[in-house]
Structure prediction request, 197 residues.
Amino acid sequence: MATYMALRDRRLHGGVPARPSLRIANVDGNTPLSSAFGSIAAATRGGGRIGSLFIFCHGYAGSNNSANVCMDAGGMGLQLGRENVLHTNVGLWTAIRNKVDSIVVYSCAAGNTEQGNQGTTADGKYLMGALALHTNATVYAADRIQWYSTYNGLANGRFEFGEWEGQLWEFPPDGTSPIPRDNAPVEFSDVMAGTAP
Prediction:
């Protein structure tokens, strides 16, 4: 059976219930990313790999820096752990290189790059591509703000994301151009429903 892992930043309201094939790591603004990397390493001890790593966190979204306006845009990074995931520190993720097959990012506009933001700190396609390169994992991230609810409406109820907003992109680990996709090969809802391979 494949192993899945959920990496959740507690600043995103919602929860991840236990499932037999799912490991869970929680972080917050005081947790160094090295702690999350340690949890991933522990899950792969003995030479195994995590089939899909699901990341649940806020994305730095809501503006187009080049146009100096607020909008359904982003690409400026992920609010994950103490350091966040930014263009300046994405290299930290080499700590889990070859330990994960795919990373599915449930975060607002993580893969967004507005016209004129290419090569800037608001270039989400570059950031997600760099995450794929550093981890040697295929990364999936969308280019628009994501909406979700929680199961039974509870503050810490299970995340219910539904369909992807905007375009979902696949970022190959070999650095080639991102590919538009309808869904990731394994979605978090598949793991919750017990239908994941």
